[in-house]
Design a protein that fits this description.
With about 130 residues, this protein is mostly helical. The protein has helices at about 5-35, 40-60, 70-80, 85-100, 105-125. The chain has one domain. The longest helix is centred in the N-terminal third of the chain and has 27 residues, at about 5-35. It is globular. The protein starts with 6 loop residues before the first helix and ends with a helix. InterPro entries: GtrA_CellWall_Glycosyl, GtrA_DPMS_TM.
């Protein structure tokens, strides 16, 4: 339990997450600008951001080095535990758009990503980077 509450690890995770947020929002912005559905754009952005976050968290946050088939297996495990974050993201994104309109879709995307971070951190720590 102590490991989950480690502020240094959490802040590293949040720093990596901020890089992932930039990847996510940049890709989301460009995909929606070329008229790709917001939910499809959100999912594609999530996949790219999750991959970059996995690589950075492996090396920087949790100091793990994976190679070959173990790298692929760990990534898919990381991806699977981040699905909850994606669901939170999609629900938040669609709620913001429904309530405030499409002009705030980038805000809805950012808010959804941030709200999913605590779940992603806890699950990644308990299930992937053990």
């Amino acid at each position: 339990m102590q490991k989950i509450l480690n502020p240094k690890t959490f802040f590293k995770f949040a720093f990596v997450g901020s890089i992932g947020l930039c990847v996510n929002l940049t890709l989301f912005y460009f995909l929606t600008k070329i008229s790709i559905n917001i939910n499809i754009s959100s999912i594609i952005s999530f996949l790219f951001a999750t991959f970059s976050n996995f690589l950075f968290n492996s090396k920087f946050t949790f100091k793990r080095h994976y190679y070959g088939h173990i790298l692929i297996a760990k990534y898919f495990k990381y991806l699977s535990v981040n699905i909850l974050g994606l669901l939170i993201n999609l629900i938040t994104l669609n709620a913001v758009i429904s309530y405030y309109g499409a002009d705030l879709q980038l805000f809805g995307q950012a808010l959804g990503v941030i709200l999913g971070m605590m779940f992603n951190y806890t699950l990644a720590l308990k299930k992937v980077f053990i």
